[in-house]
Amino acid sequence: MRQYIRHPARIPIDYVVDAEGVRDREPLADIGRGGLCFLSREALPAGACLHISIPVGEPAFEAEGVVRWCRAAGGRYEVGVAFGEGDEAYRLRMVEQVCHIEAYRERVRTEEGRVLTCEEAASEWIGKNAAAFPD
After folding, report:
1. What is the four-CA torsion angle of 127, 90, 60, 82, rounded to 10 degrees?
2. Is 29 exposed, middle or buried (0-12, 13-18, 19+ CB in 10 A)?
3. CA–CA gap between residue 9 and residue 38 (Å, rounded)
4. What's this model's pTM, rounded to 2 decimal places?
C-alpha cells in the first residue's frame, strides 16, 4: 500500500489518455513517491496509459503513467496513477516540494496576512521543512 502526501485540490493536473486521445484538466488529490491520485469526471480503465502534466514550476512536470485503479468517489472518480522508477520519480519528488511550498504560501496568506512571492515562500519553507522532507 502506497502512502501519499496530501495536497490542496486546487493544484491542477492535465492528462491525456493515449488510446482515446481524451484531454482534461482535473484537480490533483494526492501525490507520493511512486505516483499520484487525481479526481476525474469519468472513470478511466486500469492499465490505460496517460500523459500527465502538472503546471507547477518551470518547466511543468510531465511524465507517462499507467492507471492502477479507479474508484467512484462522491459523483466523481479517484484515479490512481503509477510512474516508473528513475527520472520521473525524481521529478515527481520535486513536484511534491513545489506543492508543499504553494500550500505554505497560501497558509501564510490566510493565517498571517502576508503575501509571499514564490521565491520568498520557497526560501521560508526550505528553511523550516527541507531537513524533515522524506527521502
Report:
1. -120
2. buried
3. 9
4. 0.64
